[in-house]
Design a protein that fits this description.
Two copies of one chain form a homodimer.
Chain A: H1 3-10, H2 14-22, E1 31-32, E2 41-42, H3 46-60, H4 65-73, H5 80-117, H6 123-126
Antiparallel strand pairs in A: 1-2
Helix pairs in contact in A: 1-3
Chain A binds a DNA duplex (30 and 30 nucleotides) through residues 2-4, 13-16, 18-19, 23, 31, 33-34, 38-42, 59, 64-66.
DNA sequence: ATGGGGTCTGTACCATAGTACGGAGTCAAG
DNA sequence: CTTGACTCCGTACTATGGTACAGACCCCAT
């Protein structure tokens, strides 16, 4: 598959794939088909797609691209403790973030209700006022 | 209070306060005390502090600075429907984000457990491989 | 064999939310 | 009345994660 197909299947833009390549997260296969000296086009395999999807999933888990790079650099099972450490650290961070968002949600919900039902000034707007 | 005190009480840096001023989120009082022509220092009151704290809380709820600017621009109660719309939109977004993070957490937890107990290659690392 | 769409490379630009810095001016305590 | 900390202002820079060209070049179908 070409870069365009890879991007489409991975749900990202072509430029994003190239960006990941620049970041070292995806590799850049040789331009095959060409007779050297500005050969053909780069072809990608299913492994590249899996890797791209992994990146997106890890990103959805809140890993930064830098951390994802580290995960990808730990070659198959060689550094389990490190992988586990990254995972558990991320789980902790996720728990903290979830709690924070839930607190924010509760506060916002209350504010919205007060705004709808109270007689005074809308507390969303005046929450910061005297 | 001076800008330094305001920043300290608000839990941000001085530069951040100035940045919020540039963004129009906080106002910039006159330099009082001076005899004009490069007068004294700007003084801030408790209203400024409340406003700063409001900004930080709204930010914790996931509002962008731009949205916060909009909230602040709706003067006391005049545009309740808009304020409510912003709040409920944000609550929806929070719910979606919380669900997403919870899903990610579950997936990551399973991966970490598999990594600890399985015999094969660590699935955190090889999740993207053949 | 030709035309249109995809690809390649490099560089530049974007948004968001700050952070840093230089040089001048100002305030407040000793 | 000096000294040291703080403030002011403008500008520039940072990090993160992309996005957008331009100008070549290439590939495949007709």
């Amino acid at each position: 598959m070409t870069i365009g197909a890879l991007a489409r299947e991975g749900g990202v833009g072509v430029e994003t794939v190239r960006y990941y390549q620049r970041r070292g997260l995806l590799d850049t296969p040789d331009r095959s088909g060409g007779n050297a000296l500005s050969g053909g086009v780069r072809r990608y395999g299913p492994g590249d797609l899996r890797r791209l999807r992994f990146i997106r999933q890890a990103q959805a888990s809140g890993f930064t691209l830098e951390e994802i790079g580290e995960l990808l650099a730990l070659d198959a099972g060689h550094d389990r403790p490190r992988a586990q450490a990254l995972a558990t650290a991320r789980i902790k961070a996720l728990d903290a973030k979830i709690a924070e968002l839930q607190a924010a949600r509760t506060a916002l919900q209350k504010l919205a209700q007060d705004c709808a039902h109270s007689d005074g000034p809308c507390p969303i707007i005046s929450a910061f006022e005297a």
